[in-house]
From TrEMBL, chains A, B:
The keyword NADP applies. Its EC number is 1.1.1.169. It holds the Pfam family ApbA. Gene3D superfamilies: N-(1-d-carboxylethyl)-l-norvaline Dehydrogenase, domain 2 (1.10.1040.10), NAD(P)-binding Rossmann-like Domain (3.40.50.720). PANTHER family: 2-DEHYDROPANTOATE 2-REDUCTASE, PROBABLE 2-DEHYDROPANTOATE 2-REDUCTASE. Residues 192-313 form the Ketopantoate reductase C-terminal domain. This is 2-dehydropantoate 2-reductase. Catalyzes the NADPH-dependent reduction of ketopantoate into pantoic acid. GO terms for cellular component: cytoplasm. It comes from the Bacteria. It catalyses: (R)-pantoate + NADP(+) = 2-dehydropantoate + NADPH + H(+). GO terms for biological process: pantothenate biosynthetic process. The keyword Transmembrane does not apply.
Length: 323, 323
């Protein structure tokens, strides 16, 4: 590490929602030096701490919390984990640059396609940018309170930055995975971040949008033959789009995901919570970007398009109602 | 007419909901001899009459009403207009046979594909079967009370029965159109009922399903760029399916329908009312039958399929909740 060679790395959490809160608390409880940048939840977290109610690990409490209202107060961090919504990345870029120690690693704990490409031009050239793909069921229940229902694996892939050689890139992603493994969670370096992002979309595309459109959790969707057939067809569209873009996903990957989802608890994906909370949905990263990539590669994705159009209608109405 | 040669034809309305009530009242007020078969609304109609609150024609009241609780009490009718839901046709067939004068004309005032094909085997061979395609915005507001928002055109096409020659079939459809024209409404004989049914689906497929899925009337849908684009794409799928089945629809027909809908009042299609009232939606006639016909003709209709799957999910949940 540039700024703390030999010392324990300093970790900053930018966006302490469900994902940032969960991994931040896990890392802090593993003895790592974790600092949280907060906005609306600052006072609550300062007063009451951060709490994860985990079906896997039990009740995890972090109190006191190294919490900051302003990035100017934060010490420079070697790792910055960005758990905010993809739609706020551009606005967060100056804060990320300011919070970063020289040569820091910035990890986007976000779903969707193109999120690193959009942030990269706004980041200092000296920063390493990685994607972190989280497989976990978490949601924010109240300020400073996160509910963790199941899983927790996080895999890291290098996107861009000073490391030019593959070996150097893999070493940095491996360092990050090593940090996360200290929490007890599974974590590994990814060979190919884009491939992994497409693979993750195979789950996110059907379940996020359909949970909003049909006002249903995963169990209700999986119990319906109609919804199940539609989920499979959406998955197959994503798999075909990935292949057209040069990323061959594992054979029968849709069947594997359907089985995994059958075993999951009742789960409402993050897009459902965003919509219910009248916040913008991540339509660009999860739908528009992969649809554009598929179409540029000559692959028709009519169901994904239809889902995006339906969600676009709902998002616009939501915005009008809350205006 | 077989049973009333030279006399005014006797008209029976089977299923006095919005469509049956509207056309029945219009025909009765034009001086025709109209008899209404009713079930749950019999007492209300007997006591208070039938009323159409029309934005076009003003308040239309019919009192007393020739109303019947049982088909056995009805006089034999020369024309039977069936305004019930397509899903109840099979159950109504014995009543239609019983209410029909010899050689009567049975007209299905219904949307969708295949509705005559399903009913035909259950009807007496001596009966003429026609389809009546209604272009009108009506809904039932209360027992015996229909709201008519706009339009009213009805076109009739011969499906099957004793008339074998095209000229004889057209003559019968023309007789029916002549009856309806006596109300002041536009009405014509159709050359090709199947073609007309496909043409009508171009409107019904997008607006019926999306009004349910997005909980929105036509104005809200048309005001959204996303919903508008989706509506156009669904229309193009229906037009392509019709072409694959041998029915070439008018050029740029989707643009014409979008313009017509832009000029319509806020309108909630019948499927919306069925869903809101926790009644079964006409998914077979409006979606499943045309999808099957398209697929048999080698035409992919992914958006129609997706809409049917989403509606199937909602219908099943509706049924579970009301059970």
């Amino acid at each position: 590490m540039t700024s703390s060679s030999g010392a324990a790395p300093r970790i900053g959490i930018i966006g302490t929602g469900a994902i940032g809160g969960f991994y931040g608390v896990m890392l802090a409880r593993a003895g790592l030096d974790v600092h949280f940048l907060l906005r609306s939840e600052y006072a609550a977290v300062r007063a009451q701490g951060l709490h994860v109610d985990s079906a896997v690990f039990g009740q995890l409490d972090l109190q006191p919390v190294q919490a900051y209202q302003s990035v100017a107060e934060m010490p420079p961090c070697d790792w910055l984990l960005v758990g905010a919504k993809t739609s706020s990345n551009a606005a967060l870029a100056p804060l990320i640059n300011q919070a970063a120690a020289p040569g820091a690693r910035v990890v986007l704990l976000q779903n969707g396609l193109g999120v690193e490409d959009e942030l990269r031009p706004l980041l200092d050239d000296s920063l390493h940018l990685l994607g972190g793909l989280c497989v976990t069921c978490v949601h924010r229940a109240a300020p400073g309170k996160v509910v963790h229902q199941s899983q927790g694996m996080i895999n890291l892939g290098y996107h861009s930055g000073p490391a030019q050689e593959t070996a150097a890139q893999q070493a940095i992603a491996g360092e990050g995975a090593e940090l996360f493994r200290r929490t007890g969670l599974e974590s590994a370096a990814l060979d190919n971040l884009s491939q992994a992002r497409w693979q993750k979309l195979v789950w996110n595309v059907p379940y996020n949008g359909l949970s909003v459109l049909l006002n249903a959790d995963t169990s209700a969707l999986m119990a319906s033959q109609d919804a199940r057939a539609l989920i499979r067809e959406l998955m197959l569209e994503v798999i075909a789009a990935a292949a057209a873009c040069g990323y061959a996903l594992p054979d029968a990957y849709e069947e594997r995901l359907l089985k995994i989802t059958d075993r999951m608890p009742d789960y409402l994906p993050s897009m459902y919570h965003d919509f219910a909370g009248q916040r913008p949905m991540e339509l660009q990263a999860i739908y528009a970007a992969p649809i554009a990539a598929a179409q540029a590669a000559g692959c028709a994705v009519p169901r994904m398009q239809m889902l995006l159009q339906a969600l676009g209608f709902l998002q616009q109405r939501n915005a009008q109602r809350s205006a």
